[in-house]
Amino acid sequence: MTASVMPRPAATILVIEDEPSVSAFVRAALERRGYSVVQASSGAAGLKQLEAGAFAGVISDIRMPGSINGADVHEWIRKNRPELSSRMILISGDTANSETQSLLASSATPCLEKPFRVQKLITMVEKTFGKP
Amino acid sequence: MRERKSISARRPAAAAARKAAGRPKHDYSKELMELVVEAANSRVLPEFLRRFAERTAEMLDASWAGVGEIVGSRVEIYSPKAGYPADEEARGWLVQNLRQKRLGLEVLPLGRGGLHIAFYPIYASDGELMGTLCLLRKAAGLSEDEEKLLAALASHAALSMEKVRRFSQLERSKKQWVEDIDAISDYIAVHDQAWRIVRTNRSLATDLGIPPAALVGEPISSLRHIAETGSALPCPFCRDTREAREEYIATSAGRTFLVSTSRTRGASEEESRTIHVLKDITDRREAERRYRELFDSIQEGLFFASPEGQFLDVNDALVRMLGYQSAEELLRADVSAHLYPTPAAKERLVHAIAERGALRNYEETLRKKDGGLLHTMQNISAVRDALGNVVQIRGLMLDVTEQKMFQSQLQRERDFNQKILNTTQSLILVLDTAGLISYANRRCYEAGYRKDELIGHRLVDWVETSHRPDFEAALKTTAHGQQVDNLELRARRADGSLGHFSISLSPMRDEANQVNNVVVVMTDITDAALLQAKLAHAEKMATIGRLVSGVAHEVNNPLAAILGFTDLLLENPEVPVSAREDLQIILQETQRTKEIVQDLLSFARQRPAQKEPVNVNVVLRQTIKLRSYDFSSHGVEVTEEFEENLSPTLGDAQQLQQVFLNILNNAYDAIQESGNHGRIRIRTRRAEDDIEVAFMDNGTGVADPERIFDPFFTTKQAGKGTGLGLSICYGIVRAHGGEILCWNNEAESGSTFVVRLPAATETTLAAAAKEAGR
Q: How many Cβ atoms from other residues are within 10 Å of residue A112's Cβ?
């Protein structure tokens, strides 16, 4: 690997996803493009990471078990890290869900619908977070 | 004397006699005086007249004298001695002459020995010829004095005869009077002021066992044992001696008398009489008593009333019936005003009686004393006088309040039942055991059935052929006395369409408990059945929706990982080409799985993506255009029956096109399969609040219209479809707030799909515009 493709520490992306296989594939795809990735397996864990450090962007599943879901994470960011609210990508398993629909409509946050191709993920990440 | 004068004025003989008495040649005044005395004392006429004839013969020097007395049609001849007339012929001649009316003396020659007979009439004071005096003499005429004497004698004879006649008449009538009184069966007793019996009649004396004369002079109190009025007077029959007339009832020892008393005031105290007539009314009293007993004890009300309707007599039952305390209270004059609720009612009754004489089962509502109403039935007859005027009304009155109440209750119940029968939404029919309709309620006719196609026809003919055995079996069961409930079958409606009916059959029995009729209650449950089916379907679809949504969700996570890692592998240059080909297949199948899941999610989707006014006709035309090449090249004819100016619906034109396309494809496939000359009719119209789009094809029809919208339900060959097309349509239409239906055509082959979408209203359009502008 050349130095030019080494990710800079600033381009660290937080991936909040309860499904390990999905989380693993997203991490692999992003790291292969030179991003550095921090994983959180629940909304609550994601918020802890957000409080602890700075990220170039956040990718979060909408529907997750536990008390904090993707919408709550989005709301926390809007309040506590407003500079990050435009650097967020949501992942949805069901865009037909009315709750999801209203969240997407009100926040104008880009959303990836499961299942999605790697290329679509990278395009959206580069567009939203910038290249690493 | 006046009487004499009046006679002399009219009687020449009498006048002559008086003149003769004034100047007689030979003074016969002594003889005449003797005759007068004799006449006064004589009570026996024949004796006197004989002597009179004898004297006359002596005084007038006659060889024979006689007096002929006319008694009715006979002539009685009184003479002192026999000898004349000599024979019957002579007697006949004499009688004829004696009967003859003359003004005065008439002398006729007798024809043999120079004898002459002189006749002189004897007239009564009233001018009646009582008889004729006749003398047989030698001389042809009478001297003036003799004639005067003869007149005086005739006058004497007249006085005597008249007196005796009157006397004997009096005697006769007195005797007759006594006989008459004796003949009266009622007891008669007459007493004077001194309470002494003056007379009794024979009936009374016979009752006592003694001759009537024996009681005369006895005190009237001796009759006390016959009957008594209870007064303290010496007479057992007198009550108030000041009254000229009295009438009352006296009883004694089981006998009852009606005592009628009259008092006559004589010139003196001694002549005053009290006459008691005692009529034995024991039997009548008994009859009256029995009658009264019956009258009062009978349970029916009885009354006597005046022609004006005022009660004169009523029995206890009537008093009770009308709620009065006593007959007296009811008989009071002011009662009848209270009795009749309206004056007109009484007028009507009185009028009807006067007109018809008798009323049978006359119904009248009367008001009781307490104001309550009494329903009566009366039988009334009028009693008329000789002129035909109603003088009394008699009647019998029955209290029919209970019957009336029962009747009106029955009537109410009947009305109630009738109302139920006529207002119920069910068709109610009565069949005989042969299944022929004998009655149909109003609802049947309101539903359009005609009387002539129901009454007398078999109900089973209206039942759909395949259901007839079921109906016949049910009818048979009911005819055996068993009720059949909620038999569901299809039957023809009045307009010819088939309806889904719930039918109950109940047996109706006659007096002998034999089933003679069957009551059939038919309820058209087509709508209910349809609604229930729709509800069940909707519920099923919702369940499937939730299931599918859940499954899709769970599948999406692993699918995302598979797709993701496949992409990562394909990016990896170290993966050999052969493996890449396999990975491509994995990728393809993952993509396919993704699509299926997407389809499943659209089926379960709740809302359309977009809400814009959509012209359904426009969307349909675009959709048809998409397939027009295929249709025309395969000879499938599409007819458009679009209602123009159709209201828009709010929704997603893209999704609706997907729905219409899906249905059209389905129809096309069904037509291809059937090999028919294909026809698809597409009709749009406004149906109440909805826009209705109907697709009618003549294809093979749908195997199971109930399940056609279920996910993965397909009749197509494997690989031809996922079986999700119509499920997606269902989801889309539901998300638009509409409904999608499917059924097989009844009359012809093929099936019909109907999509109903709510027509946009001003309110919904405004709301959609606001939503879009946000």
A: 20
Helix (H) or strand (E) segment spanning residue B765? helix B762-773
- No. of helices (H) and no. of strands (E), chain A: 5, 5
Q: Are B198 and B191 in contact (CB under 8 A)?
A: yes
Phi/psi for B757 (5° steps) reads -125, 140
Interface test with B, best of A22, A100, A122 (most B CBs within 10 A): A22
CB B259 within 8 A of CB B300: no
What distance in Å separates the CA atoms of residue B378 and residue B382, rounded to the nearest whole number?
13
Min Cα separation B553/chain A (Å): 6
| Coil vs helix vs strand at B36 | helix
Show the CA angle centred on residue B641, arms to residues B636 and B647, nearest 5°.
135
pLDDT, tens digit (0-9, with 9 covering 90-100), for B456-508: 999 999 998 888 999 999 999 998 888 999 888 889 988 888 888 999 999 99
> Cβ B604–A117 below 8 Å, yes or no?
no
Testing the interface with A: which of B548, B549, B556 to mutate, by most A Cβ within 10 A?
B556
Q: What does each C-alpha distance from B574 to B103, B577, B668 come to in angstroms?
A: 201, 9, 50
Specify the pLDDT at position B24: 44
Question: For the stretch B181-199, what's the b/e string if a residue is b when 16 or more beta carbons lie within 10 angstroms of its beta carbon?
Answer: bbeeebbbbbbbeeeebbb
Amino acid of residue B248: Y
Identity of the residue numbered B774 = R
A103-124 tens-digit pLDDT:
777 778 898 888 899 999 999 9
For residue B250, which of B265, B262, B266, B261 has the smallest C-alpha distance? Answer: B261
Do the beta carbons of residue B367 and residue B334 sit within 8 Å? no
Q: Helix B144-183 to helix B45-59 angle, to the nearest 10 degrees?
A: 180
Interface of A with B in 35-54 (CB under 8 A): none
Helix (H, G, I), strand (E, B) or coil at B356: helix
In chain B, the percentage of residues whose pLDDT exceeds 70 is 92
Whether the per-residue pLDDT at A14 is higher than 90: the answer is: yes
Residues of B in contact with A21 (CB under 8 A): 557-558, 560-561, 565
Strand partners, B431: B437, B518
The answer to whether B564 contacts A26, with C-beta atoms less than 8 Å apart, is yes
Provide the pLDDT for residue B716.
58
Strands B637-641 and B679-687: parallel
Q: Residue B550: in which H helix or E strand, if any?
A: helix B526-571
Q: Copy the structure tokens of residue B367.
A: 């008001």
User: Cβ atoms within 10 A of the Cβ of B533, count?
Assistant: 12
> Predicted confidence band at A15 (pLDDT cuts at 50, 70, 90)?
very high
B267 SS3 class? coil
**Residue B558: which residues within 8 A CB-CB, separation 6 or more?**
A21
**Residue B42: which residues within 8 A CB-CB, separation 6 or more?**
B48, B160, B164
Contact A56, A29 (CB under 8 A): no
Structure confidence at residue A9 (pLDDT):
53
Q: In sequence order, what are the beta bridge partners of B78?
A: B67
pTM above 0.90, yes or no: no
CA A71 to each of CA A91, A110, B58, B274: distance values in angstroms, whole numbers, following the listed order = 11, 13, 187, 139
- Read off the tokens for B384: 């008329």
Query: In the structure encoding, which two tokens stand for residue B257, read together?
Result: 């008398």
Distance CA(A30)–CA(A15), nearest Å, equals 10
A83-93: pLDDT as tens digits: 888 899 999 87
Residue B525: strand, helix, or coil: coil
DSSP string, B675-724: TS--EEEEEEEEETTEEEEEEEE-SS--S-TTTTTSTT---SPTTT--S-
